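Job type: complex structure
Entries:
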Amino acid sequence: MNLDQYKPRTVYVTYIATSPEKVWHAITTGDVTKQFFFGRRVEIELQPGGAFRFWQPDGTLDVEGKVVVCDAPRQLAVTWRVMCHEEMRKLPDCLVTYQIDDLGKVVRLTMTEAHQIELPEKMLEGGRRGWPVILNNLKTLLETGSPLPPFDFMSDAKPALDEMKETARKLTSDT
Amino acid sequence: MSTSPKFVYVTLIATTPEKLWKALTDADFTSQYFFGTRLESDWGVGSRYVFRTPDCITNEGTILRAEPPRFLSYTFHHISDEEMRKEPPSRVTFEIESLVDGSDLSGPVVRLTVTHEDFPPESKVFPAISKGWPSILSGLKTLLETGKPLDVQKKAIRA
């Protein structure tokens, strides 16, 4: 699979006092992702070409894709299609990569969201709001044993989400 | 459309706005997460500040806006590197928002948004701060949440 077609648009770097193995376990285990990833459980077949899904707490399919790179505990890359919003299902999938660097007592985790098509900034807003919440919860979970206290993310993010749906509708109706 | 790059980093920390403000402006505190750097100023608008390491002053600038515990902005001039010293100052802004006030048992959460902008094209400071801020702010979060510093070496983040 040629990955050059995916251009990085959002990058988030965090340093965590843990081991690469613990980060790898956290991002590939449903019982752990539900604690830091907006309550969602990951289901992943850990080999290139393997199926990858995120499930919402009520059992709705959230995200669907395939494993592209599976190099435990250093790099995981998956294609990513948002399934929970009808407007976004028709968009070309994006590529999400987790790079895990061992710095001794600390791990550097770099998340990169890359896209196949030119997307307006508005369409990137969801990831730019969501990834810091997810990855800060992951860091707190790994360093303290519990995620951050919960807060109402959606009331704040809803106008941006509505705009994303509208933009996605326009993008996909042209094609 | 401007070609000037802009760095934005959002982090969520289990603390109060007041504690985060102190962590950003108290030299004894900054030295624990900012590669040993003391951020020294009276933090009044128009005042000078310096980043002081045991060896030298690495940065200096002017406080542009200071509204504790919500908003802090200062000019950013790196002076300890000859090449970077030639660049005009950029501008960094810290915005602190309370997400959970902590009045219930779950404890407080704040969102800190750091925006660093006004770089010249081909800036040498921009790639340096793009690597520096994530490690500094990760260390700040760990220190406020666990009481322990994060053991990140300055040379490791450049790799």
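Summary: The radius of gyration of chain A is 16 Å. The longest strand of chain A covers residues 61-71.
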